[in-house]
Amino acid sequence: MRRYELMLIFSPDTPDDRIAAIIDRTTRQITADGGQIVKVAPWGRRRLAYAIDRHREGAYHIVVFESPTTTIVELERGLQITEEVLRHLVVRQERPARASRDSGADGDEAMLPSGEDEEDEDDGRERIDESESEAAPAAID
Q1: Rounded to an integer, what distance in angstroms lies between the CA atom of residue 65 and that of residue 89?
Q2: Would you say the pTM of this structure is higher than 0.85?
Q3: For the sheet containing 36-52, what is the strand order?
Q4: For residue 80, how many other CB atoms are within 10 A of its CB?
């Protein structure tokens, strides 16, 4: 099972109980397909970068879950036909969140990636160390 993050943007005129019902239906679908919900976080209403269906604001929600890859196709199909959802995006998290070593740390912080454990991946290209190369003289016309 892989860890995914689902961002949902709802129409601003959608009632809160309808938003809760859609999120409940989505989480039930994930768990029915063998997945597990890690976190559901409402972000509240925010201004959109551009108008979507003549809406300038949207109600944002984040759902972090672990699921088999086959669940994603069915989940997205259901979200695409839901009228209240302006946009949705499912992103696979590359690295699993490491457990916090500090017992007093909040559980939400363990889910966020930190810059400390990032390493430069070798993508097969040769790297040139600029400190060792000689600068080419400027062309004189």
Answers
A1: 13
A2: no
A3: 36-52, 55-67, 2-10, 85-92
A4: 9
